[in-house]
Amino acid sequence: MTIRVLVADDQMMVREGFSVLLNAMPDIEVVGEALNGREAVDRVAELRPDVVLMDIRMPEMNGIEATRAVVASDAETRVLVLTTFDLDEYVYEALRAGASGFLLKDASAQQLADGVRLVAAGEALLAPTVTKRLIAEFSKLAATSVKQPVQARIGELTERETEVLVLVAQGLSNGEIAEHLVVAESTVKTHVSRILVKLGLRDRTQAAVFAYEARLVTPG
């Protein structure tokens, strides 16, 4: 199946550049563009893309607010945030708002396409070390304000689910977690699904953010 993508960025050259790169892929089609966050939200409602490439800094409505609106209105559309530098607090806020990951704007065509495919498949773009470093850096700032509700939600998890959550936050794949815990990969998938449901989270990226803010994982 073709992955349908919306590109949201206030810079025309960025929109057109990403559109050209992605349309060159046999399994990806850019179905629309948006030049600000408000237009991105409207276009998602109209076009129902699989993935939105969402710039953070846009006029009228920024990428954080737009991400939050997209996630709230369309459970199927995934958001992949675009940024010019890796340790960006706004990107962290977008991840908290429900974005499934982020890419640097200087990513190669292959990295861009692979990121879109990964997010479209329901996974989170979490594996790169820089993503974990971003979450670790800015979760320290948010931990104090969300500590009590976060701690209460941890109590809903079993001991094994908590263990799996920690490993997810460390960037391990289901296969790596299965090997670490000496269980079947299907068992890990079940644990991850239950964790997301119990905590009301969208995907592995939000699970990682939650684990850092709950101090289950400490920045290292």
Automatic annotation (TrEMBL):
<feature type="domain" description="HTH luxR-type">
    <location>
        <begin position="150"/>
        <end position="215"/>
    </location>
</feature>
<feature type="modified residue" description="4-aspartylphosphate">
    <location>
        <position position="55"/>
    </location>
</feature>
<protein>
    <submittedName>
        <fullName>DNA-binding response regulator</fullName>
    </submittedName>
</protein>
<dbReference type="GO" id="GO:0003677">
    <property type="term" value="F:DNA binding"/>
</dbReference>
<keyword id="KW-0805">Transcription regulation</keyword>
<dbReference type="GO" id="GO:0000160">
    <property type="term" value="P:phosphorelay signal transduction system"/>
</dbReference>
<dbReference type="InterPro" id="IPR000792">
    <property type="entry name" value="Tscrpt_reg_LuxR_C"/>
</dbReference>
<feature type="domain" description="Response regulatory">
    <location>
        <begin position="4"/>
        <end position="120"/>
    </location>
</feature>
<dbReference type="Pfam" id="PF00196">
    <property type="entry name" value="GerE"/>
</dbReference>
<dbReference type="GO" id="GO:0006355">
    <property type="term" value="P:regulation of DNA-templated transcription"/>
</dbReference>
<keyword id="KW-0238">DNA-binding</keyword>
<dbReference type="Pfam" id="PF00072">
    <property type="entry name" value="Response_reg"/>
</dbReference>
<dbReference type="InterPro" id="IPR011006">
    <property type="entry name" value="CheY-like_superfamily"/>
</dbReference>
<dbReference type="InterPro" id="IPR039420">
    <property type="entry name" value="WalR-like"/>
</dbReference>
<keyword id="KW-0804">Transcription</keyword>
<dbReference type="InterPro" id="IPR016032">
    <property type="entry name" value="Sig_transdc_resp-reg_C-effctor"/>
</dbReference>
<dbReference type="InterPro" id="IPR058245">
    <property type="entry name" value="NreC/VraR/RcsB-like_REC"/>
</dbReference>
<dbReference type="InterPro" id="IPR001789">
    <property type="entry name" value="Sig_transdc_resp-reg_receiver"/>
</dbReference>
<keyword id="KW-0597">Phosphoprotein</keyword>
